[in-house]
């Protein structure tokens, strides 16, 4: 597959394309990886069906509606995207072979692959792209409309050329189209009542039966896929299990071939002789907060106190077995949006008490944190004990994942403990968590300076200038803690598997893609 981007017609267009590509490759350095041998170098069994266990079950198979980016892992087996990313997060051709921005940055032209079909036999073409963009913008409960908000209209130039007309320059759009916003659904399937459980895409594998929601689904090789070299399996059987210790035990006992494990299981997987592909990514552990239900959090001094009362190092070393990095920023060190001059919240419970008293909360306050059962429970229990030392009384409430997200978004939960999974472009993370209107910021609170910096970076075509604006914004979010979020640590993504599984690779996005994954006989 070619990774060459068509030469842009004008200088400014070159700047926009360079930004979309170059910035995305400035990813944090990965941790040492015990990676499997690439499938291309190993003879694989074309009849093999991979049994894979994943902890995050999608509530729907509609990629434009599903409310978590963790769902990308199962969904992208079925759905191909306009743009792909390599393991370092760099934009590379997908269903779009090439692209370019206009000189003013207000038009993004995509040149599509020819002779591509959806799994129902319908052609993939510019009309299908237009239908998908409009579906993502308008379908009720869309979770991608924010990523597509800069697109004012879509013009079908010819069968293989489509123009995205923008209301304002959006240099992050190319990478957004590598996410669910760029996932292409068959237009016929889009209107089907079965889309939630039996979708039709243009991806490597097609559904083999319906999705048993929250439990399992199966896919088989799609014989018409445009890149057969990526397909090394006859199919995949994916089941869902929130408890990653149980996932590890299933792999060890032969009940599965591979699956996701969390930090506490990594050493055990290695000790059992399994291969483990691990690496730091753009994800982070965090607490989403709702100041409208916990009025104390509206005071910046209180939010600073909460940050100072959390011993992040104790959580990383004691709960995560050292697999993680202490941070209070949404973007990791080494990434282009990370600020090297932002304040560092060293654990300081005495200063936290002083700030609480200054804000009028000498005796602290109470709040409830919703916790999805699983590995996060240990983190939240440790954090609750730390906050109790400064008078902040935290109740950890066990809540099923879909219900927890829904309650928080509807302003029915004080706070929600989650693992945020990385997004291909920083604009998506910033808009969803930190900006007014973001799905993870129901209070719509943000400083005027943060909003101004966000809007400036989104339209800035010069890579160096945008990088500076993003770093300044990261510093603003640390020095003046937002009401919506507390970042705790940088995540590690780990996949454990038997030695028969080949081609596993770690992605800086934190989400495994199955391109080239196979099994030996």
UniProtKB/TrEMBL annotation:
It comes from the Bacteria. The keyword GTP-binding does not apply. It holds the Pfam family SBP_bac_5. Keywords: Signal. Residues 91-439 form the Solute-binding protein family domain. Residues 1-34 form the signal peptide. PANTHER family: D,D-DIPEPTIDE-BINDING PERIPLASMIC PROTEIN DDPA-RELATED, PERIPLASMIC BINDING COMPONENT OF ABC TRANSPORTER. This is Peptide/nickel transport system substrate-binding protein. It comes from Arthrobacter ginsengisoli.
């Amino acid at each position: 597959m070619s990774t060459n981007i068509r030469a842009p017609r004008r200088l400014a267009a070159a700047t926009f394309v360079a930004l979309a590509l170059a910035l995305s490759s400035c990813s944090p350095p990965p941790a040492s990886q015990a990676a499997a041998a690439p499938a291309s170098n190993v003879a694989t069994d074309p009849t093999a069906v991979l049994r894979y266990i994943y902890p995050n079950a999608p509530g729907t198979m509609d990629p434009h509606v599903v409310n978590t980016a963790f769902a990308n892992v199962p969904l992208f087996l079925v759905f191909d995207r306009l743009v792909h990313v390599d393991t370092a997060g760099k934009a590379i051709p997908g269903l779009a072979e090439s692209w370019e921005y206009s000189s003013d940055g207000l038009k993004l032209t995509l040149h599509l692959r020819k002779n591509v079909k959806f799994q129902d036999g319908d052609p993939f073409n510019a009309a299908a792209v237009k239908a998908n963009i409009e579906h993502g913008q308008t379908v009720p409960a869309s979770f991608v409309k924010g990523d597509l908000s800069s697109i004012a209209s879509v013009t079908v130039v010819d069968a293989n050329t489509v123009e995205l007309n923008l209301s304002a320059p959006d240099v992050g759009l190319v990478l957004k189209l590598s996410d669910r916003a760029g996932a292409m659904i068959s237009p016929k399937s889009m209107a089907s009542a079965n889309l939630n459980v039996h979708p039709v895409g243009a991806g490597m594998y097609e559904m083999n039966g319906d999705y048993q929601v929250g439990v399992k689904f199966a896919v088989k090789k799609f014989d018409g896929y445009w890149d057969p070299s990526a397909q090394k399996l006859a199919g995949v059987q994916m089941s869902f299990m929130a408890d990653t210790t149980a996932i590890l035990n299933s792999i060890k006992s032969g009940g599965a071939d591979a699956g996701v494990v969390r930090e506490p299981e990594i050493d055990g997987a290695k000790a059992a002789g399994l291969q483990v592909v691990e690496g730091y990514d753009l994800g982070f552990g965090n607490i989403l907060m709702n100041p409208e239900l916990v009025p104390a959090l509206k005071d910046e001094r209180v939010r600073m106190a909460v940050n100072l009362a959390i011993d992040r190092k104790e959580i990383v070393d004691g709960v995560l077995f050292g697999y993680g990095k202490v941070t209070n920023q949404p973007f990791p060190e080494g990434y282009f949006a990370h600020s090297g001059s932002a304040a560092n919240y060293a654990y300081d419970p005495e200063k936290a008490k002083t700030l609480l008293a200054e804000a009028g909360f000498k005796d602290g306050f109470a709040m409830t944190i919703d916790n999805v059962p699983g590995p996060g429970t240990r983190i939240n229990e440790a954090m609750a004990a730390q906050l109790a030392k400064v008078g902040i009384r935290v109740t950890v409430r066990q809540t099923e994942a879909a219900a927890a997200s829904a309650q928080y978004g509807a302003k029915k939960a004080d706070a929600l403990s989650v693992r945020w999974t990385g997004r291909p472009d920083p604009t998506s993370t910033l808009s969803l968590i930190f900006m007014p209107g973001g799905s993870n910021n129901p209070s719509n609170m943000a400083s005027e300076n943060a909003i101004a910096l966000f809007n400036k970076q989104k339209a800035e075509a010069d890579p160096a200038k945008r990088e500076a604006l993003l770093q300044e914004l990261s510093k603003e979010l640390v020095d003046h803690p937002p009401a919506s979020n507390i970042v705790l640590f940088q995540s590690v993504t780990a996949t454990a598997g038997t030695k028969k599984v080949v081609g596993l690779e770690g992605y800086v996005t934190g989400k495994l893609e199955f391109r080239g994954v196979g099994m030996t006989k």
